Amino acid sequence: MKRIQVTRHILLGLIVSINLITFFSDLLNLKTLGFFNSLEYLHEGLCSFSVWLVYLYLSRFKIFNETDVKKNLKYIILNLVSVYALVFILKLIFNPTFIVMDFPPQSDNLKSIIFANIVSFIGTFSMIGFILSLRNLILYKYKKRTKLYFYITLVLVAVTALLTVMLKAPLDLTFKGSGIYNNTVFSVVLSFLIMLGIRNSWITYLTRKEKYYYLFVSFLFLWAISYLFDYAYELPIPYHSLALGVFINTTWFFLLFYSFFAALYLLLQLPTARVFERKMREVASLQNLSRAISVELDRNKLSALITNLIIEVTGSHYTWIELVDPDDHQLKVAATKNLSFTETSKLERGNIRQLSAQIMEEKKPYVFNDLEKESKQNYFSGLKTSVASLVGVPIIGANEQFFGILYAAKSNTFGFDPDDVNLLEAFANQVAIALENADLMKKSLERERLERELQIAREVQLRLLPQTKPKLRHYTLETLTITAYEVGGDYYDFFYEEDHNLGIVIGDVSGKGTSAAFYMAEAKGIIQSIAKQVHSPREILCHANNVLSESLEKKSFITLLIANIDSKNNQMRFARAGHCPVIHFKEDEKKVEMYQPSGIAVGLDQGPIFEKMLEEQTLSINQGDVLLFYTDGLSEAMNKNNEEYGEERLAQILMKNGQQSVETLTKILIDDIFKFVENQSLHDDLTLILLKRTE
Amino acid sequence: MNGFQVRHVAKDDVSILYLSGFLDAHTVPQFENALEEVIKKKRYKIVVNFKDLDYISSAGLGVFMGFIEEVRANGGDIKLSNLSKRVYKVFDLLGFPALFEIYDDEQEACSKF
Predict the structure, then answer these.
(1) Is B94 close to A601, i.e. CB distance below 8 A?
(2) Which pairing describes strands A366-368 and A389-396: parallel, antiparallel, or unpaired?
């Protein structure tokens, strides 16, 4: 920043000193009556150098590097106005006179010399300012050769200046005498200027209002520019310096061409301005929309956004979106614009429903440009708003799914042309895409949520199971649980009454997932607390049923089996509430027995039937006997032919391997089941408890 | 997995639902919807024919529990018929015979209303 400041000051200092030098040279010329005329090349050189320095100086200012079109236009106008004002004042003060008999013009008084010098100084700054501002406009839409043409022109201007200085012929395009050389180059310069002059693509992107405004301004400007040269520069500048005259003259031509073509373009673009503006807005709005729909998932917020856009782009007075409610499949207004809440609810219940039904059925847009004449129905009775034209476009997704209707209305007749309808259809398509996206997203979120829930349920379930194996004298015990992919409701637990007394609970909660896990937790708590007071398995189950049947869902139930093993008497009491039977391997008799005392599952009945049905059975356990408790995941494990593993196979395994330890027996059982199901996956949890009397 | 199908046939004031295939946690909603529709029509005399049902899981049994209260409160019943041995075993294990009337034959079930 500091460096730029310094160079700016140095540049300004140089410019001022050079202009002072040329001023004194003019003065000397006057006093000595052209004695120093021989130094004129030096004089012209210094003037040209000064132009270049001013270019360097001004291009360091931010306002001459502006990319904004309107700001550049403002600077150009300001520039012109200030030049006129300054020259006007200077003319008043100095009242200059020039002798125009010869070329370049001459003067014989001090006042005119001062005037010429000041005007040259101002003119240089002003014209360089113009060039820089125009450059910014031309480069608005950068084309391949634009910069090249710009610099070629600058070089050609320098050549013209040099020729003019040497030949002392005016640039009047008359090609007389020696004027032929500099005028030829000059005409090439002019053709380049025309080429640059038509680079005004910035005009296209103005709004319609701005186009009108700038057209008016450009006419004034053109008029003002055309007089500028004659008024301000024609005499004083060529007097001061021919080179400078060439520069300023060329710039003036450039300005003239540019403003002429700009005015012409503005004029030509006026008829299409409205359409162009609209297309621009359409593109922008569709862009906005597609950006919005990729992030917005809430259908109401999305609809609100779209109604806003429709108002903006189509100039509709009212707009609303009706969407099919996913719950009751009725059309409901999802968003409105310029309609009050009461109007909306009237609309929802009003005659428009017939039109909606029609659109829904035919799946094509309806357009009314004169609602009163075209439709027998009064769709908007009871509404304060007056509607004369109406468009209803169906919102249809892929697979012809009907999402809803997008309505736009205007209070004037013939408010919607085919373009409008096309645009509304494009909007409706976008809405459909957005709604589909939102649905998909919702579903995948939902799936994710369910999966997480299942994960939690699985963890809860595993934590509910006993973490350690119970110990009972003279007995060994082994448990195994294999969970299916989806959480099942298998459950087992132990409780002690005394050292020699072990309670075994095994059960299966109907249903899966979180609810099963919760019921399981509830059952565990209840049974653990009842077992502290009541000892008979039957009574524990009756109490548990009383409590649980009240809290269980109607269609949920729990199968439970509670067994109480007394290691002193080697007896087992048990009751079965709808649960799988107990399988007993009798070592001494070498046979297997299956016990299925009567009993219905917990939760199926409030109490009376449950209690009536539930039986308690007692059996003796001899040394070497094995007892197997299991859940239906074991007996109902299925192979690919949908055959169940079944109790028969269980009994056979026990029969054959009853002498084995519980650990080995468990392994043999599981191996056999997996051999049976082959590569079918388990569709339910599988739990087994093996108990063996060793002594 | 095999599919599951439910077919509704009205015989006088008795609605007969024919089940076939696999009734498990995945197909339960289908059966629930069918039962719901029958009940919505205020037809409370229902016979469920299990002749072609290959398998029923505990979730399938839950469906009956979900509706029986409402049906009985309206003077109707859900009676079961033509259970295969395999299906009956599941019902029996859970103690359903104490709660539902189970018949060998559809005709017999219908006549018990």
Answers:
(1) yes
(2) antiparallel
